[in-house]
Amino acid sequence: QLLQRLSQATGCERVVDVGAGQGHLSRFLAFGLGLSVTAVEGDGRLAGTARRFDRELLRELEKTGAPRNGGPPRRRRPPPPLARRGPRHVAGRLDPGATWGEFLLPADPPGPDPVARNPLWGPGGAEGGERVLVTGLHACGDLSPALLRHFARSPAVAAVASVACCHMKLSTTPRPLGALPGYPLSSWVAALPGHQLSYRAREAACHALEEYAGRLGEESACLRAHCYRAVLETLIRAADPGKKRPGVQTVKKAHALSFPQYARLGLPRVGLDPAAVPLDSDAVGAMLEQQHKVVAFFSLALLLAPVVETLILLDRLLYLRERGGCRGGGEGAAGLPVPTLPLPAGFHCALVPLFDPRFSPRNLVLVAARSPLGAALSGLDEDEDAGAAEPPGEGQS
After folding, report:
1. What is the mean pLDDT of the chain?
2. Does residue 396 lie in a domain region?
């Protein structure tokens, strides 16, 4: 609904969906809303899967006599709502440091198709000369900041809608010479003493606070998994002190397992032999008895998670205000003077709580446009405030 309103408000019918994955959002925008969609995915295999899903959907539509790509129906029956053209899938990665005319890098891993043309390159800006909307649904780590950077520097992009996730994967300062960090983006936040965010803080900001509160209220057995993970990491560090932050993938239904069963599944994932690690010792039993302390610690960390996520998202909003009001300046703290309040009038931008956080914990959408957002945001949710849209100031484009 938000993208449809943005399309109507900006007059853009072309959408570039970055980090499209298997193309679920792209299919809805193309088949359901009739928009012209280019789906960009950095994993060539996922782009291939998305094309297969498109073909399967088109076959189902043909069975009902629905028109394909605007063609006449094969049977005499009213076409269903999904009688639309499909998205165009592009396998390529977003280059956060490139100019808007050099939008894509080759996919990794590559797909079977040749490298596609840049969907933001053509006469007048975008391919075909039209302006486009850019969106990224749960764009991971540095991908979300890259979308905002391209919007700020790309006249072909009329508006952007970004839902971020995986904040722990954000790159931070210091960075190699010429490399742009994912956090902070704004000069204002970069100049704040103590603005740095640790990996642990950024990781905590990704958890589902509402879901965890429900588990606490129900005293759910799922809480046991946190203690299991803490004990397992202790054993891993004891066996290999070099593994300070072991990337143990989630063990499904861990709460239904005994700890030895859980550990035998988790240890091989970090290259350790379960037979060489004591799993039934008195020390392990003593640690497992401290589950209540682990839950209390995790709960305290989650209380701060919304603060961390708010800082990350407001930093991005401030970046858009700086860039829109100070065109032609450089990137980052070295390129722009640190603004004083009130901030310069920049792009029109808003943070919109679009989803139910119990359904999607990363429910805040950062929307930015070169024209006022009032028409796009009004009425999104009649029961609650649609978002924290900032009033336009003088000099906004």
Report:
1. 78
2. no
| Coil, strand or helix at 364 | strand
Q: What is the pLDDT of residues 150-209, one digit of tens each?
A: 888 888 888 999 999 888 999 988 877 667 889 999 999 999 999 999 988 898 888 878
177-180 own/partner pairs: CB under 8 Å, 24+ apart: 178/97, 179/97, 180/96, 180/97, 180/145, 180/149, 180/331, 180/332
212, part of any domain: yes
**Chain CA centroid to CA 35, Å:** 21
Closest C-alpha among 311, 329, 323, 121 to residue 197: 311
Residues spanned by the domain of 232: 208-300
What single letter denotes the amino acid at residue 359? F
- And the tokens for 331? 């990137």
For 5, the token pair is 């309103």
What is each CA distance from 82 to 15, 58, 59, 61, 332, in whole angstroms? 18, 9, 12, 8, 44
Quick check: 332 pLDDT over 50? no
Give, as one character, the DSSP assignment of residue 276. Answer: G
CATH number of the structural domain spanning residue 12: 3.40.50.150
Task: Give the other-Cβ count within 10 Å of 343's Cβ.
Answer: 16
Q: What is the pLDDT of residues 110-144, one digit of tens each?
A: 655 555 555 555 444 455 567 889 999 888 888 89
Name the pTM for this structure. Answer: 0.75
151 is a domain residue: yes
Tell me: do 105 and 7 sit in the same domain: yes
Residue 371 has pLDDT above 70, yes or no: yes
Structural domain count, the chain: 2
